[in-house]
Amino acid sequence: LPNFSSFSGGPNICPRCNKTVYFAEKVSSLGKNWHRPCLRCERCSKTLAPGSHAEHDGQPYCHKPCYAVLFGPKGHIFKSLNNQSGKTIQ
Ligand SMILES: [Zn+2]
Ligand SMILES: [Zn+2]
After folding, report:
1. How far is the CA of 71 from the centre of ligand 1 (A)?
2. Cα of 68 to ligand 2 centre, how many Å?
3. What are the φ/ψ torsions at residue 22 (nearest 5 degrees)?
4. Fold of 40-90
5. 63 vs 69: CA distance, rounded Å
6. What does the alpha-carbon distance between residue 32 and residue 14 come to, in Å, rounded to a whole number?
């Protein structure tokens, strides 16, 4: 077996699928290299354009609606509503 571990953390390992990213399929964002189809929103899986998307905790998100819903001011309201367990909201 080739010793892939010696390449771990290298600049050409896709953070999404942990496979080598070759030049022809490479997109760079968040300081890492991704496969083009792997650079997608964590929440809605929409493919993102490198450099023009939101980021949280090293993960890519689209600005709207996902980042705004999850981490924007409305997101906190959204979460607190969801946390009202024991009551059925219709
Ligand atoms: Zn990938
Ligand atoms: Zn999204």
Report:
1. 25
2. 9
3. -90, 160
4. Cysteine Rich Protein (2.10.110)
5. 9
6. 8
